[in-house]
Design a protein that fits this description.
The complex is a heterodimer of chains A (678) and B (505). With 678 residues, chain A is mainly alpha-helical. Helix content of chain A is 70%, strand content 4%. In chain A, the strands form two sheets. A two-stranded antiparallel ribbon of chain A has the order 1-2. The N and C termini of chain A lie far apart (105 Å). The chains are: A mainly alpha (678), B mainly alpha (505).
Amino acid sequence: MITSTLLLTIALSPLVGAIIAGLFGKQVGRGGAHTVTILGVAISTALSLYVLKLIAMDGHPAVNMSIYTWFEIGSIKAEVGFLVDSLSALMMCVVTSVSLMVHIYTIGYMKDDPGYQRFFAYISLFTFAMLMLVMSNNFMQLFFGWEAVGLVSYLLIGFWYKRPTAIFANLKAFLVNRVGDFGFLLGIGMLLAYLGTLDYATAFARAPELVGQTFTPWGSTEWAVPTVICILLFIGAMGKSAQVPLHVWLPDSMEGPTPISALIHAATMVTAGIFMVARMSPLYELSETALSFILVIGAITALFMGLIGVVQNDIKRVVAYSTLSQLGYMTVALGASAYSAAIFHLMTHAFFKALLFLGAGSVIIAMHHQQDLRRMGGLSKYMRVTWITAWVGTLALIGFPGTSGFFSKDAILIAVQHAERPGATFAYICVLLGVAITAFYSFRMLYLAFHGKERFGHDNDHAHDAHHDDHGAHDDHHDDHGHHSGPPHESPWVVTLPLILLAIPSLLIGAFTAGPLLFGNFFDGAIFVAEGRAPLAEMAQHFEHGPLAFALHGFITVPVWLALIGFGVATYIYLFNPAVAEKAKQVLAPIHRILDKKYGFDELYQALFARGSVAMGKLFWQAGDQAVIDGALVNGSAGLVARTAFAIRRLQSGFLYHYAFMMILGLIVVIGAFALLQ
Amino acid sequence: MLDVILSLLIWVPIAGGVAVLTTGERAATGGKWLALIFALFTLGLCVPLWMNFDDASANLQFVERAAWIRTFNIEYYLGIDGFSLPLIVLTCIVTVLVLISAWEVIEYKSTQYYAAFLMLAGMMNGVFAAQDAILFYVFFEAMLIPMFVIIGVWGGPKRVYATFKFFLYTFLGSVFMLIGLVYLYLKGQSFQLIDLQSMTLNMTEQTWLFFAFLVAFAVKIPMFPVHTWLPDAHVEAPTGGSMVLAAVMLKIGGYGFLRFSMPIAPDASAAYAWVIIALSLIAVVYIGFVALAQQDMKKLIAYSSISHMGFVTLGLFIAFALVLQKNSPDTAALAVQGAMVQMISHGFVSAAMFGAVGVLYDRVHSRQIADYGGVMNTMPWFGAFVVLFAMANCGLPGTSGFVGEFMVILAAVKANFWIAFASALTLIIGAAYTLWLVKRVIFGDVANSHVAELKDLNSREWIVMSVLAFFVLLIGLWPAPLIDVMQPSVEALLQHISQTKLIGV
């Protein structure tokens, strides 16, 4: 039975851990902090898996319950409550299990950090917020979780708050997300205005009423209400899931410690937008226009962000751009009405991308916080576990037949291929090209880090230059770090264990779950696809003979060949003939420059929005408040009173003849007026 | 005791203030304790007040009524409904916190400082409890005197300019209100609010009254373009003065709109709601940008207050369109509730923000953002509190700052999408100026030797910050109790404004 106690325990145990570690960090100490938070998340994970088992295997019906009333005004009600069906149960498992791995990993990664307890408090708090988001049964709580994960992301990107780059990045992340939330909130407002409810179940039930209603923004222009609502909500998703043009915060978020890059900025938080759209599928299915919009935005993100990944030299940034690109794939799937494929890719991606990020973190530890790929190479012989698991992650990322990424990516490609809405062809070309790009940058990174010549010295590893030191807060602790010199070595077991535990699902989970998730009835009742739309029908035919046959069939399909091309080029260049890379850079200089500048989004936003709004504020303040209101009106009227008083005062001179003269003048005026009127 | 509880809430602190004054400077410590005891006792009175308040009724409760000036039918008439109750409680809480936060800080004439705040608290309670317009007016004006003294005596270097600006601005506004009230008396021979609210008035009369009240309350809350006294007053005021000014005194403007303008002149309010809505949106957007450009922490927070008050006026006046045109009283209630919650929430959040600036000012004696940086390194607990309050200031869900804005924006979508669009910009602008402030002051490496020497919060400051944090989170996580207390009064107000007063004229 899924009871409210069970669900509350799942949601609140990480919160309890966070509070203990955060507020009483000094009292419980380092060991206490990680014990209590890991315990909390472990309880959540175990119970989430139990809930998933009940729903997926035992046929437990979906649960929709209210915990308490947040406010109630007439018919408008906002509650805190849980909706647990197959979709949320799956998300709960992904969130808690990745979070658990990251918690364990953090023991090793952050062991020398003075903010150890604080870090555990934050990641547990994040787990709580993310659970509230995915378990919500209403829009108010969704928005709560939505912004709360943003808050924790803000705190964690700025975890090393002494570093100027970190506190720039976290402010940027929060503000860009707020732009998305702006749209999201208006979307919720439109829903309330047209459906009169904040509750999912009621809203979805009434959603068909929206069809045919129009909204008049101005004049005689008319927009379809479902389209407006869906696009507004999707703007929120664009912020959270970093879709072009609101993607700029995600690469900068790599300023945060690596464990949270894995947990928040790869596996879970950034996929909240994808989850949200899938959750709202009954709404999105009402608007062909909104779905086309989503399709195109996703396709642009998938291809063009992948391209930037090709020229990055910071190991974490390669993975970050890869994340952007993969989020684009998920978004494309949503746009093609293949919500289940999007969620499926979300799940597989959570595992293999968390794996890759944590692997990158393991490399960073081994390299003494060097993140520049050009100073790595040949690490495979020093760190076998990290190397092998990185291979697993890479194969899953490029969609090598049989790995989990293969099933999920193939589902997306097929869905787009068969989508019949404006933008589908463009999207299909983008995602196909993206497959080759993905393979190229993935293997480039793998080779630069683990293979080829060693490009680091064994004794000058301190290279704390420019943009690499993941442990900025440590600058004054160098003497404590005996391990900062000497050859790279494999990370401790708390680091490698999560790598192994994540490598297993990266490899296998696709084959085991593709059937029920994509073609079975797992998501029935949770995800809604309009009748007549069956984006995965063709894939289902091929899949009839089971995952193994399907994987073998994969070898003869276009995507795999494209991936092989990417793999081949990367192998040739980075394994056998590195000079080609330099040459290509020179030949393709203009393109390289564009990619290196990331298409100029950052510069544009910085000039237009950051500097522009401060300049506008100054103008308003100085011209409006100070010059006009205070200068002319407030002090001006005081001045006017003073001047008038000065003028009138002159009349009262004190000289008798002045007064006598005035009296006579007055008398003349009065008599004259009297005479004239007569 | 319940029969006279409102009188006690007014006169206990005022009498306490007088008593504290008589202790003199030599017994300053005793005077402080005496003041605190009076403030705590007054706060204690709020407990039976809240417990015995019937939240199913919109009627006036705890009514006290006696003739005062018979010639003009002026009464000593007290009573509260759902609008008054939370504001009185807010006043009592903030007063205690202000006294605690001044404990070791104010050395010059400290007993007089304490006395001024006690009297101010009594008068503010009087404003919220008065049901006779002249009684209201007397408290409304008398309240200026202690604040005038607080800024004028314990203020900063430009305090004379600031006090005069503050006094003249607000006084000018209230004169128009008095003229309006006199007109109403001449017409109806009564100053009782209940009579004024039910009085039939033609459109011309209502229009004149609406604008007379508007001037008074727009200055008080304050609205663009009569807001420029506020930044100056805040900058010069001592910490406690800023806390009370922002937390309670501004709310009297919003309270005035829903006690006077809306019920007395409902048709004119409906007709000219667009004026207020336009000015509110200017407050949210224009003032938000102005806040972004500030170099002085207190000025920044003062502008942020004006911007937040924009949601109060917006919520109150979109209710007209929602009731009359959209025929959606529930959404209108959402808007008015949002405005009220915003007032209460801002009471706690702004008190906290000004209190936090005070904590820094006591140590470094500067309000300039540029003089700080990396405070987190030396004051981690303080930094954590500031981040919490900053998040409340930019309306993060889970904090009180979210609730009111969320409700007003949601209601605004129903009234007009573009009103909602403009007001929701606060999500971005508010976060920008607040978090940029946090970035420059709290985060970063230790900026200078002053910051390096900072000591974290002492226990006295801990109390103030944690009490405020408690309420910020309580309202953010569970606003239902607050909303339930107000709901009948909101419904009654909406019922009242939905009926035109023009019939029969």
